[in-house]
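This is your field. Have a critical look at the following sequence-structure pair:

***
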Amino acid sequence: MYRLFYFVALCCLPLVAGGQSAEAQANRQLRWKDACYDTHIRSIQLFKGDNELSWPALTLGLDEYLTLWFDDLSESRPSLRYTIVHCTADWEEDNLFLADYLDGYPENYLYDYAHSHITRTAYVHYTLQIPNRDVQLKASGNYLLKVYDESASQPLFVRGFSVLEPKSSATALRLRGPAVTGELCLQQLEIAVAHPQLDVRNAFRELKVRVEQNGYRTPGAEQPVPAFVDNGRTDFSQINRNWYAGGNEFRFFDTRNPDFSGQGVAQMHTDERGFSYALLQPDRPRNKYFYERDLNGRFRVDAARTLERHTEADYVTVIFTLPYDEPFDGEVYVFGALSNYTLHPAFRMEYNAQRRAYELNAPVKQGLYNYRYVVLRHDGTVDWEAVEGCFAETENTYYIYMYFRGVRDRYDRLVGLFTVNTER
């Protein structure tokens, strides 16, 4: 009886809208390639081909494409448009001339969309493929895709992707764990790259390596720098550098079937209006490594008994609960691809002193989801370990980007893109 009363009470909590101060803090700490500025835009995914768990990167000269999916929950909005801009190795717009990196039009409409049906939450689902008849890419490097309704200077959201011209190969790429390093939290990355096709005159100025863990960078993480250069080969490995916090495995929940409690869900409930709620199992701070096969923070939209999951999957109010005796010195966020890998105000939790727990109600499309908890301290720093802990055994995938900007180049060319996983 108590659990049912508690569940109903949580269902009545308002959705967290967030404030400008929290959003400003998040933007300062996690200013990166992916961001969403409109709370009506949900379930954004950008990936290669038709595999929604793949990495958004194309190779010049190959018949490949990217796919963008997202939902718009607003009741009415004018036609949406998009533009694509070229960026530096650090995802800053580089003001490269449009004709240097793109064949086509600078601004285009999103023509492929469909309205939801048999769902309680109404939305419009959009699909876009790149390249297409309006846009073809012809330069390597980083790109930002901006989707907007009125002005590209005020996008609804942005998504980053990369285009590779393979001019290098990894001659050494491995992760050193606790058995070798003796570190119980950190994972060390060793990188050596051969680039005989490049006219590298000064590796320290012309080569840049950027590392992402599971698709995002943690604030403060150092980026590799050349340690040794010899005959068309650059080694970026150093004894006291290239350390990355291992963290812990992502948590998981399954809301594909509103009639049953999937993994991570304590109870499903549908109210008299037909809206569904998923009360997740109460989470606890972790003080030890917890192994579970995960999606490294990503999600997959799916719904039972549907023919078209993109327009028939409904939005479920997911109720997160994190018991804690006293509030943290800061704000607690639910983090992952569902929050665009940012500390988004819509995923900021509220502390309930009576229940001694952090709580959050958030509408999330049916499917399989990963998430974790992150604390934004009052001093503006991001604490990744306060709730989840940090362990070198954690399974992570690292994406290593290598850029080259020679004396005659006007932009950062992406000449290498490598991946390494802690388990392989």
